[in-house]
Specification:
Blueprint: H1 2-10, H2 18-35, H3 38-55, H4 60-82, E1 83-85, E2 92-98, E3 101-106, H5 107-133, H6 136-145, H7 150-179, H8 186-217, H9 235-252, H10 255-258
Antiparallel strand pairs: 1-3, 2-3
Helix pairs in contact: 2-5, 2-9, 3-5, 3-9, 4-5, 6-7, 7-8
Length: 262
């Protein structure tokens, strides 16, 4: 997770106006959710991956590892949608029995699960594009310009930073335990895991207090003020964003090409 922040700073799209990247990402995600079209979702997934990897110069391996994280949860989620109790229907693709209950997948449930899967994956790819090309403090700056509540913006920034504090602490404790063969056996592993959680809570709380004390010593009054970079508005980029969105929507809604099935 820490690599997300690092990748955002080394991205070739780092110097692009964050407002433009934010609007492009959010607009694409809103269209993806509202259209509920598999073709559009697939196009968004491919386009966002391509622009993040080839234009942003993010390593394909790193992007693939990151996309696998939500992919696991999505697969588990759509299985429960695609497979449910079925009766005698011609739409059944496959079925099986558990005790006296007949479970199966119909064409309707499969299509619904597919739409949800690709729509969710496309939304995640939009957010990954934003996260992997824009540092968090620039995203917070954009939210401030949109007049988002100050409390929400500050909490978002602090929680994001404290996540890394938590992960760093957990990693150090795990390395220390593993070097002492704390996970050599299953029983020993469970015991070490319990101690890790306990130590993690105490250590993280202490470190958070130390960070808060350091912030207060620097005159923290509830608002984190950062030096903002001056980005120029690129009308060329805005025009490209509009063209890309129009092309994607046109292709996805073209019944002549896709027969209006999806």
């Amino acid at each position: 997770m820490i690599s997300i922040d690092k990748l955002a700073y080394v991205s070739e799209l780092r110097k692009v106006n964050p407002m433009e990247k934010f609007m492009f990402s959010i607009l694409t995600m809103i269209l993806c959710i509202s259209l509920n079209n598999i073709v559009y979702s697939v196009l968004v997934v491919l386009f966002m991956a391509a622009i993040t990897i080839f234009k942003g110069k993010i390593p394909a391996k790193s992007y693939g590892e990151l996309i696998l994280i939500p992919l696991v949860f999505l697969v588990i989620g759509i299985v429960t949608i695609a497979i449910n109790t079925v009766g005698d229907s011609k739409e059944i693709l496959f079925s099986f029995h558990i005790f006296n209950i007949k479970l199966g997948c119909t064409k309707t449930s499969f299509l619904m699960a597919s739409k949800i899967f690709f729509k969710a994956l496309a939304s995640v790819s939009c957010l990954y594009f934003l996260a992997l090309t824009t540092p968090v403090f620039e995203i917070l700056t954009v939210l401030r310009k949109f007049k988002a509540p100050k409390l929400f913006v500050e909490l978002m920034g602090l929680v994001y930073r404290f996540i890394f504090v938590l992960l760093d602490t957990a990693n150090m404790i795990f390395i220390s335990q593993n070097s002492r063969l704390g996970y050599s056996k299953i029983s020993t592993g469970y015991n070490s895991l319990g101690k890790l959680v306990t130590s993690l809570f105490i250590s993280s709380y202490k470190r958070s207090q130390d960070i808060y004390t350091a912030m207060e010593s620097r005159c923290y009054d509830g608002e984190i003020n950062l030096i903002e970079d001056n980005f120029k508005i690129s009308y060329r980029n805005i025009f490209i964003i509009i063209i890309v969105e129009v092309i994607l929507v046109t292709i996805s809604l073209s019944k002549n090409i896709f027969g209006g099935i999806i």
